[in-house]
Amino acid sequence: MNVAIVVAAGKGTRLGGNRPKQFLELDGIPVIFHTLRQFERCREIDAVVAVLPAEETAGFQSLAQQFGRQTLARVIAGGETRAQSVQRGLASIHEADIVAVHDGVRPFVTPEEIDQVVVAARTSGAAILVAPVADTIKEITDGRVVRTLARSQLRRALTPQCFRFDILKRAYDRLAEVEGEGIEVTDDSLLVERLGVEIVAVEGSARNIKITRQEDLIIGEAILRSVVSGQ
């Protein structure tokens, strides 16, 4: 059994307004339900755990059914940080082969990409979706350029990030220790790297954007239109 943890517990303060960004609408449908739809269309995902702000959990199951999402196994209240929210979602899973962790505000991942990462993790134990870096990247120290990094060797980490259940559980058992060192855990593979586990990179699409700013909603609407038109 493969389980997805869709992390959508953030407050979305960068977008402003009274609603978390995952509940803002694209084409009349909240972003979170666009995201859940992609997992419902996967061959490799059997159940989905949604991690939400505590105040949004009541009634979410029925709301999900209203938007046609049927594979939602449970709804969990998130923690103070993204990593703590994933940890809570993980604690709700008692048995799984592969766990796929995905940002709830990445609605344009495709079912095919999700399936590819799950299959890669089944073989290797750990796999993440990545995309090429388009810009030239500089390493900066004290406001000065130290060096230019080789763009061909760089990738942006996307989600989903998929791991064998036992590997991800071991990684998150060390979360308090890592956060105690002052390290901001912005993705799951950071914790898995610290176990010394080799992680396979699966090339994904740059279209798999994260909705974090107002302009991302505009870009999202454009992506939706291109999908509908078949471009």
Task: Explain what you see.
This protein is an alpha/beta fold. α2 links the parallel β4 (47-52) and β5 (72-77). The protein has helices at residues 31-40, 60-66, 82-91, 111-124, 165-172, 175-180, 188-193, 214-229, and strands spanning 2-7, 25-26, 29-30, 47-52, 72-77, 98-103, 126-132, 138-141, 144-148, 155-164, 200-203. The chain is built from 8 helices and 11 strands. The strands form 3 sheets. Strands 5-4-1-6-10-7-11 form a 7-stranded mixed beta sheet, sandwiched between helices. It has a two-stranded antiparallel ribbon with strand order 2-3. The model has no long low-confidence stretch (mean pLDDT 90).
Q: Which helices and strands occur, and which strands form pairs?
A:
Layout: E1 2-7, E2 25-26, E3 29-30, H1 31-40, E4 47-52, H2 60-66, E5 72-77, H3 82-91, E6 98-103, H4 111-124, E7 126-132, E8 138-141, E9 144-148, E10 155-164, H5 165-172, H6 175-180, H7 188-193, E11 200-203, H8 214-229
Parallel strand pairs: 1-4, 1-6, 4-5, 7-11
Antiparallel strand pairs: 2-3, 6-10, 7-10, 8-9
